[in-house]
Design a protein that fits this description.
Number of helices: 19
Strand content: 15-25%
CATH superfamily of the largest domain: Glycogen Phosphorylase B
Low-confidence stretches: none
Structural class: alpha/beta
Largest sheet: 9 strands, mixed
Strand order of the largest sheet: 3-4-5-2-1-8-9-13-14
Number of strands: 20
Helix content: 25-40%
Distance between the termini: 14 Å
Mean pLDDT: 96
CATH architecture of the largest domain: 3-Layer(aba) Sandwich
Radius of gyration: 23 Å
CATH topology of the largest domain: Rossmann fold
CATH class of the largest domain: Alpha Beta
């Protein structure tokens, strides 16, 4: 088979800047593809946080028109951690270097005077510039991919720039290079679409002829996610169930019609996990290493360390619930508020790591105040604490209203931490409910519930707590079954490679 070249573009990448699972995916998938013989590179913005990584400046600069002026960018270069995969970072200080933990300013949002998270007002210009910069990187470093793989709305306009501008209006000797590129667009979360007012269209340099129902217009506004859906040669999302769900009015977020029209080009591929990072047998961030055969001793040490860290009573038979999450409506925090207090009144403990909306932060602070000796809370982001919760908790809660794929349930399976999940999206595809039949067949890996109600969640959590307390042999069987599942990136990368080659063969 012929060699392939793939350029991944994303607004965040693990090892450089991270707010969620997108960064983990783009930090891992290119490595798995590279191991299959596909040459990969990555491009992302250069945020302030990126300067903590090992990056070096290049002499490459470019200018692109944004809002009637030429905006300059400069390229820096790094590598994905532990690899030779190049990462190109686009420097534009006014757009990207505003993140600052001390003032609660992130890469997409800031915290306003009322304590609410708010998007930066110029996000359209910021990520429009980045999307155009993606195409400039190819020219500057002479890296012409067979596949340009775009991730989420922050990169979606690159597909429109490629088809509407670069392959027609670039210098004549470059038009063929741009024209040969096949584009993939991966939907990591359809709810975040990058919707802006219609007058941003000329600011980005697009003609008004593209402001139509079949292109960029969305209820009188500009929709970046829609651009990704319309212009990509292939669409992927991060689980088969989510691929079906987003073609419905319930979870299609207004774009279900577009997705139904492109259904033959839409594929669901479950994300993988980086087993060099998320693996209790090699994890340097946890109290004790363990695997499926040394589970009892290693996990008990990790649980005791987690209880100590959050000043909880160190009782090995107390069920310890864990949660690592963005604090947003999507993540089912309303169910947590209604159901977890009953588990605490029955003697359970609860440890949470996360940050997000003020209403959910306040709810968790009140929960901690009401159960001060049973609830541990860390508001923020911490790679170390997230590993320690996965390793030390007995039970992991993911009652998400919807979940495109989810990574934490995969981490939980790997660490012998039993997930309790709403059976939606990738959670439905990866967690096998502990029904009596599934337990008897040794297929069960966790507890799943439907519908999305407090009663259903409480029932699943109570089934889980009952097995933890009363059936230790079956509990261990669930843990070991989960730990032996294959959710490595190699499995997912093989499917991406198949789709890449299929797309390229269609245009030979």
């Amino acid at each position: 088979m012929t060699n392939l070249k793939c350029l991944h573009a994303a607004s965040e990448v693990a090892g450089f800047a991270k707010t969620g699972g997108l960064a983990d995916v783009v930090g891992s998938l290119p490595l798995a593809l590279q191991s299959r013989g596909i040459e990969c590179a990555v491009v992302m913005p250069l945020y302030r946080a990126c300067r903590a990584a090992k990056i070096t400046p290049t002499e490459h600069r470019f200018r692109v028109p944004i809002g009637g002026r030429l905006v300059e960018g400069r390229l820096w270069r790094g590598k994905l951690p532990g690899s030779e995969v190049p990462v190109y970072l686009i420097e534009q200080a006014d757009y990207f270097e505003r993140d600052d933990d001390a003032t609660d300013r992130g890469i997409y949002q800031f915290t306003d005077a009322k304590g609410q998270k708010a998007d930066y007002a110029d996000n359209c210009a910021r990520f429009g510039f980045f999307s155009r910069g993606i195409l400039e990187v190819m020219r500057l470093v002479n890296y012409w991919p067979d596949v340009l793989h775009l991730h989420d709305w922050q990169t979606a306009l690159a597909g429109a720039y490629l088809r509407e501008i670069y392959q027609h209006y670039a210098k004549p000797d470059l038009r063929g290079n741009y024209g040969r590129i096949r584009t993939f667009f991966t939907i990591h979360n359809l709810a975040y679409q990058g919707i802006f007012w219609h007058l941003d269209l000329p600011m980005l340099g697009f003609p008004w002829r593209l402001f139509t129902l079949d292109k960029l217009e969305f209820y009188g506004k500009l929709n970046c996610m829609k651009a990704g859906l319309v212009y990509a040669d292939r669409l992927t999302t991060v689980s088969p169930t989510y691929a079906r769900e987003i073609q419905t009015t319930l979870l299609g977020c207004g774009l279900h019609g577009v997705l139904m029209q492109r259904a033959e080009r839409l594929h669901g591929i479950v994300n993988g996990i980086d087993e060099h990072v998320w693996n209790p047998a090699v994890d340097l961030l946890i109290e004790a290493k363990f695997d499926a055969t040394t589970l009892d001793k290693g996990k008990s040490l990790c649980k005791a360390a987690l209880q100590r860290a959050f000043k909880l009573a160190q009782n090995p038979r107390t069920p310890l619930l864990g949660m690592v999450s963005r604090l947003a409506v999507q993540k089912g925090l309303d169910l947590i508020e209604k159901v977890v207090p009953d588990a605490l009144r029955q003697g359970a403990q609860f440890v949470v790591l996360g940050d997000g909306d003020k209403v959910h932060r306040d709810m968790l602070l009140k929960l901690q105040k009401d159960f001060p000796s049973q609830v541990g809370l860390s508001l923020g982001q911490s790679e170390a604490i997230s590993h320690q919760i996965e390793a030390g908790a007995d039970i992991f809660l993911m009652p998400s209203r919807y979940e495109p794929c989810g990574l934490n349930q995969l981490y939980s399976l790997k660490y012998g931490t039993i997930p309790v999940v709403h059976a939606t999206g990738g959670l439905a595809d990866t967690v096998v409910d502990a029904t009596p039949q599934n337990v008897a067949m040794k297929r069960a890996t966790g507890f799943a519930f439907m519908p999305f109600t407090p009663t259903a969640f409480a029932d699943a959590l109570n089934r889980c707590l009952t097995m933890f307390r009363d059936e230790p042999a079956r509990w261990r069987q669930l843990q070991q079954t989960g730990m032996l599942q294959d959710y490595s990136w190699q499995r997912s990368a093989a499917e991406y490679e198949r789709l890449y080659r299929l797309a390229l063969n269609e245009f030979v």
